[in-house]
């Protein structure tokens, strides 16, 4: 849609990114950011730092991610993978920076989340970091779930001068199963009926397969709605679930939809099931099972795969008979058969 911001792209850094990374480091230091350098920072020194960091990446000792939007580097962050034999589970979070123009847009939080995912993928479950207490990001990390171990006075000089204390913080990326979410059958039926209404709009307004989806917050607020739009949008990914997730993400300004429940009239396919995992959806409630392509227990069980770092609680069959009948009648009408 015209006027919408293009998506943020977080990818591993490459040697081609050194100039942009160096410019961001120089900008951060000039803004008194505590990243280990003093102002003024020579751009050649900044380039040398990133070149050395990428050599460490190639050797398997570091991860460097970049956040891009429309060809502009908005932020970066690194993980130092601790190599001590006694600490194979630990990594250090460092050099998390966002450009001045990107402050307050969720770039930093998205970078930290991506770094945490990278840490999990490499078997690291304990992250540590230090954050300056003078114009520092300790409050930012606290909001992301990091806890304080203690403060060290006169830890380091700020780039513009003056010794500053530093706070040592940590976060355990706990992979234990979460407690089951409370279930309200009346609410499940109410939101599923809304999803069924959206599915009817798909058939009535767009002549699309009548699948509807509703994304609801932990507080019971509807954050996103969608119905199948594959044909009308010329988009193979425009399933009802994906459209509801997109709307909720835009509304919250975040691609992680923590604590939310997705209601959908048909068991999700593999694409939509994995989108729920990536969005960190807490619970899925679906109506009719899909014996051909269902990926939540019928044909595949992607949400139950123990290799995922996130678990989605699943409830199937809510108004399933009615949802299945509406789907069958749509296809029967296409074939000139009477409704069931």
Automatic annotation (TrEMBL):
Catalytic reaction annotation: adenosine(34) in tRNA + H2O + H(+) = inosine(34) in tRNA + NH4(+)
Family matches, as InterPro entries: Acyl_CoA_acyltransferase, APOBEC/CMP_deaminase_Zn-bd, CMP_dCMP_dom, Cytidine_deaminase-like, GNAT_dom, tRNA_aden_deaminase
Pfam families, alphabetized: Acetyltransf_1, dCMP_cyt_deam_1
Molecular function GO terms recorded: acyltransferase activity, transferring groups other than amino-acyl groups; tRNA-specific adenosine-34 deaminase activity; zinc ion binding
GO biological process, any: tRNA wobble adenosine to inosine editing
Domain N-acetyltransferase: 8-174
E.C. designation(s): 3.5.4.33
Free-text cofactor note: Binds 1 zinc ion per subunit.
SUBUNIT field: Homodimer.
Purpose: Catalyzes the deamination of adenosine to inosine at the wobble position 34 of tRNA(Arg2).
PANTHER family with a match to the protein in the record: CYTOSINE DEAMINASE FAMILY MEMBER, TRNA-SPECIFIC ADENOSINE DEAMINASE
Membership in a protein family: Belongs to the cytidine and deoxycytidylate deaminase family. ADAT2 subfamily.
Protein name per Swiss-Prot or TrEMBL: tRNA-specific adenosine deaminase
Gene: tadA
């Amino acid at each position: 849609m015209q006027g919408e911001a293009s998506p943020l792209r977080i990818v591993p850094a490459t040697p081609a990114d050194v100039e942009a990374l160096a410019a961001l480091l120089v900008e951060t230091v000039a803004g008194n950011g505590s990243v280990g350098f003093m102002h003024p920072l020579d751009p050649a020194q900044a380039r040398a730092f990133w070149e050395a960091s990428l050599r460490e990446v190639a050797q398997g000792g570091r991860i460097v991610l970049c956040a891009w939007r429309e060809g502009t580097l908005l932020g970066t962050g690194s993980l130092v993978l601790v190599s001590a034999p006694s600490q194979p589970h630990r990594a250090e979070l460092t050099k998390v920076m966002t450009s001045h123009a990107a402050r307050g847009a969720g770039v930093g939080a998205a970078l930290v989340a991506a770094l945490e995912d990278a840490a999990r993928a490499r078997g690291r479950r304990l992250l540590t970091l230090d954050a300056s207490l003078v114009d520092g990001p300790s409050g930012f990390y606290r909001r992301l779930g990091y806890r304080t171990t203690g403060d060290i006075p006169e830890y380091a000089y700020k780039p513009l001068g003056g010794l500053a204390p530093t706070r040592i913080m940590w976060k355990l990326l706990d992979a234990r199963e979460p407690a089951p979410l409370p279930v309200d059958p009346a609410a499940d039926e109410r939101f599923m009926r809304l999803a069924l209404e959206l599915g009817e709009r798909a058939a009535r307004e767009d002549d699309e397969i009548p699948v509807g989806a509703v994304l609801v917050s932990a507080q019971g607020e509807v954050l996103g709605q969608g119905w199948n739009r594959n044909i009308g949008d010329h988009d193979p990914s425009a399933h009802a679930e994906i459209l509801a997730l997109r709307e909720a993400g835009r509304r919250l300004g975040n691609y992680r939809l923590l604590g939310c429940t997705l209601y959908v009239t048909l068991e999700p396919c593999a694409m939509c099931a994995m989108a729920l995992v990536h969005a960190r959806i807490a619970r899925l409630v679906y109506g009719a099972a899909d014996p051909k392509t269902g990926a939540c227990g019928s044909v595949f069980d992607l949400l139950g795969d123990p290799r995922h770092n996130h678990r989605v609680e699943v409830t199937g069959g809510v108004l399933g008979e009615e949802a299945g009948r509406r789907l069958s009648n749509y296809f029967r009408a296409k074939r000139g058969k009477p409704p069931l």
